Amino acid sequence: MTKYESSVKKIFAPVGSVYAKLSDLTNLSSIQERLSDPSFTEAIRQQVGDKANDDQLARLREIVSKMQFDRDSAMVDAGPVGNVSLRIVEREDPKLVKFVTENSPVAATLWIQLLPANDTQCAMKVTLGADLNFFLKQMLKGKLQDGVERFADMLAMLPY
User: Fold this and answer.
1) Extended strands (E) in 49-117
2) Cβ proximity of 152 and 131 under 8 Å
3) Which helix (H) or strand (E) holds 2?
4) pLDDT of 92-126, one tens digit each?
5) CA-CA distance, 152 to 157, in Å (whole number)?
6) pLDDT of 39-86, one tens digit each?
7) What Cα–Cα distance (Å) separates residue 36 from each residue in 32, 51, 92?
8) Rounded Cα distance, 40 and 8, in Å
9) What domains can you pick out in the chain, each with its CATH number?
10) Spatial separation of the C-alpha atoms in residues 26 and 8, rounded to whole Å
């Protein structure tokens, strides 16, 4: 299994609040509603700079609008491969939420690790482990590393 790790992100919220939000995926469904808000879309555009144009943001809205959430999983329609899910398989309050992919062409595990910094802040790191053959590993290495870093950035920006 190849691992990709984000840098450590500072979150300006208590570790318990962050853990509570990330360990129950129904809390993330609010993102679906906010994507129709132009100010939220503009904030995303400012965050990623020239890496997101109007077509990409429209595609993001389309994908997220089709996502389904319950307490333990998030499912998205991945086109030709069908519905792909991330399911929580381990919770360690307040420091770890571990996910695995289901119905995915690539077996993967995602860890969100949290560590309290003080009463009002915590640190977070995201790790992705994926079973990739040599060819895919070489082809996707940079994109997966960048994706893990962006995912961690996004999680760090959520309101807790």
Assistant:
1) 68-69, 73-77, 83-92, 96-102, 108-116
2) no
3) strand 2-5
4) 999 999 999 999 888 999 999 999 999 999 999 99
5) 9
6) 877 776 666 566 567 777 777 677 777 788 899 999 987 777 788 899
7) 8, 20, 34
8) 25
9) 2-157 (3.30.530.20)
10) 25
